[in-house]
Amino acid sequence: MKQLPVEWKSDRLIISNVEESDIPELESIYETSRYLHQWDGQEHDRNYVKECFEEGHLPPGGRLENYRIQSIRTNEDDRYIGLLSVYHGYPSEDSIYLEFLYIQSEIQKQGYGQELIQALTRHFSELGYKEIRINVALKNWTALRFWIKSGFNQISRIYGDLEHSEDTFAHTELIKSL
Fold this sequence. Notes:
By secondary structure, this protein is of the alpha+beta class.
């Protein structure tokens, strides 16, 4: 199965596989994403990056060799600004699942996310994949706007709680065809 390169670039970004020495800095970046859990109802995992590095965050029946966790750094000053994790070949062989993408909140709204998605789309299309999928909390309006603007305009399914309240949560799986 063809996969993202160990390191690749866009105009302003360097994306590369996480090394064990990267984990402390990337955990601190991940820690700044804790606000996202107000919309998805999940517990914040302080060891998320380490666990992903060691075991992956795999779908049912998934294999570690199909999983990648990568750091996102700026080309200009080689500064860590985010994190990307993907699973190659889920739910079908010609699908990519974006398990997690986060750019530090103080860096957001500078076009890095759109640039990254455009570069990912190009890479995955060249590798022969037909679609990219992502799970988005329905209460996360900013993320929904970002993903729809990025071409994720098909809804695969909506799942979670049936009633809306402050203490209930639902998600949608969005698809971008390549």
